[in-house]
């Protein structure tokens, strides 16, 4: 049985000032197995973030439904942890207090929280920064804290909306290895949205490529590269072959979005 | 000069003081130089002499204390009422739809115009002074707090929902702490306005306070005393502003870190 089931989910936005309604997402069907790492790859504006937000319960689907462990999703909840592209740490809480947020909302005693928080601080390599305010951290450290905050709650599924999109290339590479390392050790069902082809292949056990707006699933590619994955994998022939294939897929879509014609070869 | 380039702390102090010096120098020049009639504008030295006499002989410091008490009393009353209403309006849109039109209307009713009515209702005692400040501040605080709370970062609210917050949890654990520094800053701003209302309240139907001393001095053409009173108000305002800023820095270190 699949962990997450997306059944005919679509999204249409009401027209602005009496204009035509805008279809952001064509009906999407997707079945995610437990402990799968799925990346959703698509050009900007293809509705991939919208799809993720519908799974999170932050937006309502216009049609269709989302089932998590067989139960329909109606609103956001702690069973679906989320990491956003923007920095969403609570600025008035320290790193440790941010990570403890969901545990506190659950009413867990402080003594019990402390042990869990310490283990997640360790997991994302932020020892020594527990008592820093978010403003004192670099972007990469903030996103590491955000990942720890989402994981500390032990959600059924982890949703990530271009979490490394605002980071520089080097930091982004390190963050990918960190997150993948956590996933390899702890196993978790993950839905990861990105527009970066390399990132999509490197992280995933399955890449879902989405078409330009209105978004729909264009292809569904299993990534059978062995684990644990090391960054050198990115220069291997298998990786390059996958990259070439997905680059072609996504290029056509990007051009449709930008409304340019491919040059005649 | 390079635009937006910061100035060093030392130079900042020197520059800040030198304008005060320039101001006093200009004032001394027009008064001692005989460019204005002394009856209408006292010179800086007579002002200081008049001020000293006021403090020592006329026990003006009692007036200062009573004015400070009125400002803070009225201001605290207004804050206690306005901050919760403002938060409720910002957080829950039906509450805002219910109250916002009335509060927006009431905000334009000048506090000074209420003074005759308030005197009829509450007499010319302390209650009337407090009410003038209350009426002048309460609607302003409500509207600003409601606006700040209403513009709480949506992504923080969404993040909290995905971490298991309930609707009440969002208000208590996100909306309140996220806006606390802004609310404190709003109160600091409105406290400045409260000083205007208290003086107006003391100009009419009062027998004590800085405003009373000022209106009393007018009938005796004691412009030195009037200016001294105005300067005292300015100094107290400056001091309370500093204190408020220091308090905010101490309470909300994260917003400056």
Describe the structure.
- The complex is a heterodimer of chains A (265) and B (257).
- With 265 residues, chain A is an alpha/beta fold.
- Chain A has eight helices and ten strands.
- Chain A has helices spanning 48-56, 95-99, 101-105, 110-123, 139-152, 169-186, 197-203, 237-258, and strands at residues 4-13, 22-32, 37-41, 63-68, 71-72, 80-83, 157-161, 189-194, 206-210, 217-222.
- Chain A has a six-stranded mixed β-sheet, with helices on both faces. In chain A, strands 2-1-4-5 form a four-stranded antiparallel β-sheet, covered by helices on one side.
- In chain A, helix 4 crosses helix 5 and helix 7 (197-203) packs across helix 8.
- Chain B is an all-alpha fold.
- Helix content of chain B is 79%, strand content 0%.
- The model of chain B has no long low-confidence stretch (mean pLDDT 91).
- The A-B interface holds A 56-58, 75-78, 80-82, 84, 86, 88, 90-93, 101-102, 104-106, 133-136, 149-150, 153, 159 and B 153, 155-156, 158-166, 169, 173-174, 177-178, 180, 252-255, 257.
Helix content estimate of chain B: over 70%
Note the total helix count of chain B.
10
The CATH superfamily of chain B appears as MetI-like
Secondary-structure content class of chain B: mainly alpha
Largest sheet of chain B: none
Rg from alpha-carbon coordinates of chain A: 19 Å
Mean of all residue-level pLDDT scores of chain B:
91
- Low-pLDDT runs of 5+ residues of chain B are none
The CATH architecture classification of chain B is Orthogonal Bundle
What proportion strand of chain A?
A: 15-25%
Tell me the number of strands of chain B: 0
Q: Can you give the mean pLDDT of chain A?
A: 88
The CATH H-level superfamily of the largest domain in chain A is P-loop containing nucleotide triphosphate hydrolases
Sequence of secondary-structure elements of chain B: HHHHHHHHHH
* Count of runs of 4 or more consecutive helical residues of chain A: 8
CATH architecture of the largest domain in chain A: 3-Layer(aba) Sandwich
SSE run of chain A? EEEHEEEHHHHEHEHEEH
**Which CATH class of the largest domain in chain A?**
Alpha Beta
Spatial shape of chain B: globular
